[in-house]
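Data availability (excerpt). The following record was deposited with the supplementary files.
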Amino acid sequence: MRPTAPNWLKLLVPVKRTVDYAVKIRVGPKGVETKGRHDGLNPFDEIAVEEAVRLREKAKEAIEKITVVSIGPAKASEVLRTALAMGADDAIHVETKEDDVVEPLAVARALKALVGQESPDLVIMGKQAIDDDSSQVGGMLAGMLGWPQANFASEVDLDTAAKTVTVSREIDGGLETLKMSLPAIITTDLRLNQPRYASLPNIMKAKKKPLKKMKPEELQADFTPRLEQVDVKAPPPRKGGAKVESVDEVVAKLKEAGVL
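Predicted structure:
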């Protein structure tokens, strides 16, 4: 039973299983090669999980629960266990087929349905996934819910008593600070924090934490792809650079390349 105190909050953190950022992508005749590839928790989502845990460490008993959710094939449960080992309380896995392509709009629709079920006060997610780089889900979800949003957060300050959150974000001219009433949505940037490593005891504890399995049909969200991938090509190999001794030599090289 959820406590009735007005300052008890619930956090929802969507996460995605993506290719490891340190792995070199291989492109084959049918697109990006997935066999033998090492995948893990999307780094921006890892930052979001870390921030949720830190907010609870600061607020202590004011935050009731941190729930992580992932939409993807069976192996997506691995990143949920990682998030649980970092400090999340429970997880929801919306399991899709291995070859299903779940586009940002479908993810946002599914998350909207989950928000209706879980009633979180704050949704924290990575600003983008490093596989498709869409950076769309946070804005789409905020629009669907009619909630305020702050994207690319570099600092987050949660006032649990007033139920407000203050977010600083980097812009071209410096920093922009936004204050929002809860419920709200935040997307995280790289400079927000440094995620912790999950300790072995916490990894073992994570295996016993609740992980709920769901089917897309239960959310009544349309996962039908709206986009068609026409082609995928690896970028051409980069040519080696050359050192020059003077400005005249730079100009000569530019003319030789046809730039000037």
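Summary of structural features: The domain at 9-256 is CATH 3.40.50.620 (Rossmann fold).
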